[in-house]
Amino acid sequence: MAGKGGAKNVIKGKLEDNNPSRKYQKFALIIGVTGIVGNSLAEILRSTTPPVARGMSTGLLVGHGHRGTPTTPSTTSSATSPTQNKPIQTFDPDRSHPCCATESENCDVNGKMFTNVLNVVIPNAPNLQHICLQTGRRHYMGSFKDGRSHDPPFYEDLPRLDSPKFYYTLEDILFKEVGKKEGLTWSVHRPGLIFGFSPYSMMNILLSLCVYATICKYEGQPLTFLGTKEGWNSYTDASDADLVAEQQIWAVVDPNARTSF
User: Fold this and answer.
1) Start and end of every PRISE-like Rossmann-fold domain (predicted)?
2) SS (H, E, C) the chain
3) What is the pLDDT of residues 152-191, one digit of tens each?
4) Contact of 127 with 89, CB cutoff 8 Å
5) Exposed (0-12), middle (13-18) or buried (19+): which is 228, by Cβ within 10 Å?
6) How far is it, in rounded angstroms, from Cα 213 to Cα 179?
7) Dist CA 130 CA 121 (whole Å)
8) By the 8 A CB rule, do 196 and 242 touch?
9) Which long-range contacts link 14-22 to residues 24+ away (Cβ below 8 Å)?
10) pLDDT tens readout for residues 9-28
11) Do residues 186 and 130 make contact, with C-beta atoms less than 8 angstroms apart?
């Protein structure tokens, strides 16, 4: 595992030195910086000289950051205005979460937030180079209620399921908006369970399991699996947050990785 050190070397070799004749500062806008991958991205990008990260989310990471959720065009414009005259690689990790009663509502809410971001950033950042969209493994699976799913293993080119899914909505918005700006590239990243740490994220399964195991040990109780039979018997996979962040950086700096899933 290369981790932060490997990613830092990638940035030094390509992101900073790829075009030494350029006079402007490299810059990354992270929408969802408080998420697990967002936190890893910020830590990696802030370790470069000069730092190249700015984060936007409902919480604030130590360093460059901004509190705010892109629920309206005006709040989005205010949050992203300091980045508009710089070349930006826009990462979008851990930004979208299902939080509504139905998947159709999830599509509407998350779609509006993503549209607000792109409608502000793309027209006002003339040097914008690349957009990373992070969704997840549930791209290949139905909602928790309907149970439909492709059979594993999952491949990037599997067709979409015939059911609403806000991941599909986000991809469609990305393709539509990117197509309006010549030369702007994209990549979509679909990790499974993410192992990492962010003090701001509730979706942190590894930390939850560690706390549960610690309590069981302290109380002298067996570490019992609390999930379902289907969960116990199913196939699953996990992704390291630093490696997902490094993959997204790679998608920005390597032409062979752009415009791909």
Assistant:
1) 104-258
2) CCHHHHHHHHHHHHHCCCCCCCCCCCEEEEECCCCHHHHHHHHHHHCCCCCCEEEEECCCCCCCEEECCCCCHHHHHHHHHHHCCCCEEEECCCCCCCCCCCHHHHHHHHHHHHHHHHHHHHHHCCCCCEEEEECCHHHHECCCCCCCECCCCCCCCCCCCCCCCHHHHHHHHHHHHHCCCCCCEEEEECCCEEECCCCCCCCCHHHHHHHHHHHHHHHCCCCCCCCCHHHHHCCCCEEEHHHHHHHHHHHHHCHHHCCEC
3) 889 999 999 998 899 999 999 999 999 999 999 999 999 9
4) no
5) exposed
6) 48
7) 11
8) yes
9) 14/253, 14/254, 15/48, 15/52, 15/249, 15/252, 15/253, 16/48, 18/253, 22/87
10) 656 555 555 554 455 577 88
11) yes
- The token pair at 141 is 């699976």
Instruction: Supply 193's token pair.
Output: 């369970």
**How many residues make up the chain in this entry?**
261
What is the residue type of 81? Answer: S
